[in-house]
Design goal:
The chain has about 230 residues and is α/β, with parallel strands linked by helices. The chain has five helices and eight strands, in the order αβββαβαβββαβα. It has helices at about 15-20, 75-90, 105-115, 190-200, 215-220, and strands at about 30-35, 45, 60, 90-100, 120-130, 145-150, 170-175, 205.
């Protein structure tokens, strides 16, 4: 049995760095993922009219601590370099890597990818049709989520399904309505569009951060191997 077979069509609950190191070089056809952004500890809401909170102190929802396990941004970016390097190693030549990322930090990822000789393509976007309202009511609703698209080596016609037609670099879709069981769950529609354009049927798709399993669900439905 090929060593990659032990990972096919499986959701593995483990440290992704440990698992990635076991995946052979150049063995997956596409990577699409949504890593932690290290932004939850930046999210706060001031309840100025709540009498139960003394002195208008900042209220922070318990959900805000789900991705704050790094002490500094430098620690976080060092960790990103590790998992990105391992992921790129597993990717076949001429294949694609798409990752959601904090739009305020994309320049760091761009540099990491350039150092790994990855071709930086363009940002892709999920346009939220139901963006959440702003609690403070002093800024705009955030309706765009950014994903970065890279290619390992040259992009070939076989790895961009132009036969599907012209496609803009954004996909419109609502935020999933699941009572927020996952704080940053992505919808299936953008994942499906990008997998269809950037891979072929029965290709092996790797998601190092499966989250709520969106990539897995989409890959299974459109006959990819996750």
């Amino acid at each position: 049995m090929d060593i990659i077979d032990q990972f096919k069509n499986k959701i593995i609950n483990a440290d992704n760095l440990d698992v990635l190191k076991q995946i052979p070089d150049s063995s997956v056809d596409m990577i699409i993922t949504d890593p932690p952004y290290m932004v939850s500890n930046e999210i706060s809401l001031s309840r100025t009219n709540n009498k139960e909170i003394e002195n208008n102190e900042t209220y922070i929802n318990s959900i805000n601590h789900w991705d704050d396990c790094w002490k500094t941004q430098e620690d976080y970016l060092d960790w990103c370099k590790l998992w990105i390097k391992e992921s790129v190693r597993t990717l076949k030549n001429n294949c694609h890597f798409v990752m959601f990322f904090d739009i305020a930090k994309i320049s760091y990822v761009w540099e990491i990818m350039k150092d790994l000789n990855m071709k930086c393509r363009m940002p892709l976007f999920w346009l939220k049709t139901n963006p959440p309202p702003r609690g403070r009511k002093v800024d705009f609703m955030r309706a765009l989520e950014c994903a970065l698209w890279f290619t390992k080596g040259k992009i070939l016609p076989d790895y961009f399904n132009y036969k599907l037609g012209q496609q803009v670099n954004y996909v419109e879709s609502a935020i999933p309505n699941n009572d927020r069981l996952h704080p940053t769950q992505k919808p299936e529609k953008p994942i499906e569009v990008w997998i269809k354009y950037l891979s072929k049927e029965n290709d092996i798709i790797l998601d190092p951060f499966s989250g709520s399993g969106t990539t897995c669900c989409v890959a299974k439905r459109i006959n990819a191997t996750i």
